[in-house]
Write the structure tokens for this entry.
Amino acid sequence: MAALPIVIAGLLAAAFGFSAWKARAIENAFPNHGELIDIGGFRMNSLYVPAGPNADLPPIVFIHGASGNLRDQETAFRKALQGRADLLFLDRPGHGYSERGGEENGWPDGQAAAIARLMEHRNIGRAIVVGHSFGGAIAASFALNHPDKTAGLLFLAPATHPWPGGVDWYYDLAKAPYVGWLFSRLIAVPAGLSRLDTATHSVFHPNPRPEKYANEGAPALVLRPRAFRNNAIDVANLNEYVKRVAPLYRSIRTPTVIITGNRDAIVAEEIHSVGLKRDIESSELVWINNLGHKPDYVVTDVAVAALEKIAGYDRDLEEVARTAEARLAHH
């Protein structure tokens, strides 16, 4: 029996060592290609792509969803929009290579405030704010708290409203004091690596996951222990937050487009997207059949047309959406 504590200690040390080794391997595979900027008390990471001489759109800020990082939205949109606008892709506080900052950054309004300060450091006055999934809650909070910096809103499969039930058990566990710290450093890395391929395919379902996504979108970055726990705290806090904040969406007046699919297995579109359409008077809801949770990748053309419409161009988004639907029907 005396040897048992030694065996347990050895196993724990091995597990810690394996997780640390794998976390370093993930960072070596997906090194930071943004720039860390001190925004007051902590550093945020972002990639700024300046507009070209023939720019025809206002600046655009992209806010990634849960488990994401700046590469996710950069891979989806950079090629389609480069040169047309100043583009700002960012790692939300505590994600990717951004530092976490204070406890306020466990909530969407804290992250929105951080993004507003980042925009100031990047000399971006007003921008169209694009929020995918969890990023939708931050985009809505940004519009509520920083209307002077909001030129428009594009929501992509957003998570913005209260929903029945809770979140997956491991979010609550990873959020918990002490136990969550241990869980994130002992279990998250090996368990996450074993499920990463399946999980990323399920996020795109029923649409095929692009082969480039696993490498260019760098979803493995969230499995690093600190990022995993920050992500869990964000997700576990969200329902409580939107219960308080969603009633305020009615005060949003900026041009707004919501793009959602009827096959989203991650976020309930009939709660969130329909709720935004109801609450934001100036909004337009673009509903696409056979689309899952990743309109940013699967119907990028519809999202670009929506950005153009927000910027003042005459665009028939329903027509663009029907063209996209016809394309999806053949896959």
User: Anything to note?
Assistant: The first helix runs from residue 3 to 29. The chain is about 50% helix and 15% strand.
